[in-house]
Structures are given as structure tokens and as C-alpha cells.
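Page 42, continued from yesterday. The earlier attempt failed because a stray header line got pasted into the input along with the sequence. Redoing it now with the clean sequence only.
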Amino acid sequence: MPKLVCSGSVVKCPFGLAPATLSVIPKGLPVRGDRQTAANIMDFQAMANIAPFGMCSSPANPQVVAALMAPQPCLPVITGPWTPGSPTVLVNGQPALNATSTCMCAWGGVIQISSPRQVSVEVS
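This time it went through. C-alpha cells are written below.
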């Protein structure tokens, strides 16, 4: 079973030069997983939930193209919620975010969970 993802988890983008941190802003009473605030699929907002990945090297990013393919500062443009999430566990009314979930950046990056921040709570 995949692990529950919590605030402080490490996320990565294949076009980012550095990992980033997932921040969870509770939308109701905080749900905890091993003393960390649990995330749900709606924790996908750039800057608020997903920090920049350092420099972006995506050939679909107009800033990278304008700089003749030189990496440019990452400003994630997340196109929608994390998928698939947990079909059986809800966090504040939304499917819990698990370590197999991904979300997409408009510049072609598939953002993945690199480290869920905790190892004792599993969700299906």
C-alpha cells in the first residue's frame, strides 16, 4: 500500500533542477498522519502548496525557449489536482494524497512524490 503524503514531503519535477517541498494548508481541522498534517488531492496550488523546483529546463516553457534553451527560474503552472489519490480515505472531504499520486505542470513536467515525509501510515 502507498504511504500517506504529509506536509513537508519532497516532490520532484523531471525538468526542475532541485526538489521542492509540499506545504499543506489545512482546510478544516488538521488531519494528522504520524504527527504531520495530511495532504489531499486539492493541495496542488503553485507557490502555496508546491514550491518552485529551482531552475526549469523544459523545452515547452516559453522562458526557456526565449533564453535559447538555457534553464530559467521555475514558476510551476499546475494544471489540476493530484491524481489518483486514495479511493477509500478522505482528508477534509477530499481523497487523501498518497505517494503514487502525480500532477502535471503546463510545461510538460509530471510532478511526483519523492518522499512522503512519514512511513507509518498507509492508504489504499
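Notes: The mean pLDDT is 94.
Reminder to self: strip header lines before submitting.
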